[in-house]
Amino acid sequence: GAVVSQHPSRVICKSGTSVKIECRSLDFQATTMFWYRQFPKQSLMLMATSNEGSKATYEQGVEKDKFLINHASLTLSTLTVTSAHPEDSSFYICSARDQQGVYEQYFGPGTRLTVT
Amino acid sequence: AQSVTQLDSHVSVSEGTPVLLRCNYSSSYSPSLFWYVQHPNKGLQLLLKYTSAATLVKGINGFEAEFKKSETSFHLTKPSAHMSDAAEYFCVVRRNTGGFKTIFGAGTRLFVKA
Fold this sequence. Notes:
The structure holds two protein chains of two kinds. Helices cover 0% and strands 55% of the residues of chain A. By secondary structure, chain A is an all-beta fold. Chain A is globular and about 40 Å long. Chain B has strands at residues 3-6, 10-14, 19-21, 23-26, 32-38, 44-50, 56-58, 64-68, 73-78, 87-95, 101-104, 108-113. Classes of the chains: A mainly beta, B mainly beta. Chain A binds chain B through residues 32, 34, 41-46, 91, 93, 95, 97, 102-103, 105, 107-110, 112, and chain B through 36, 41-44, 46, 51, 90, 94, 96, 100, 102, 104-107, 109.
C-alpha cells in the first residue's frame, strides 16, 4: 500500500529556533498534503492543506507566518515551525492524498516536537 | 456541514469480552467513514473504511463496523478484546464531493483489563 514518511520522527529544539519537518509520499504522487497537530490525549486538528506548487490554505487560528508550509514537488511537503516556543511542542502528523484512483488519504507516522 | 461524535471518551473491557466503540456522524453529502487506531506515541493505523459499498465492513485484527444510515452511526466492534487492543481509536468522516475534507472524532481510549 501507499506509504507516507516523516522526518524526523522526534526532534528537540531550543526556544526561539526553527525546525523543519519533512513529509514524503514514497510510492505515489500527492497533489494535496495535509498537516495536522495533536496535543496529548486529544484528537488531530487540521492545521493546513497544501497543494503542489501553490500556497497552503491554513485553518482558522493557525498562524501562517509561524507554521510555514512548502509543497514544492508531488512527493514532498515541509512544515517549518519558526521561532518555536514550548507551547508549540506537539505531535505533528502529515497526510497525503493520491491523485489517482479513489483519491485515498494516507497518514505519516508523525513527528514529536519538543521545544525546551 | 460535517461532524463526528464519539460517544465515549473512555471504554474499559476485560480481555476476551466484546468491544463496542460508538460513533455518530452527520454529513450533508454521502460520506466515507473510517476507524483508525493510534497506539501511544505512534502514528495512525487504518482499521477499516466504509465507502458506500457493503454496510458491514470488516477490518484488520478482528474489528468490524456497521454503517447505519437511519441512525447515522458507524460503531466499531470486536467479539473478543485482546490486551494489544488497548489504544486510542478515532472515528473519521470524510467528504469527497463539494470539497475534500476530513473530520476526526475526539477519540475513545480503550482500556483492556487482564
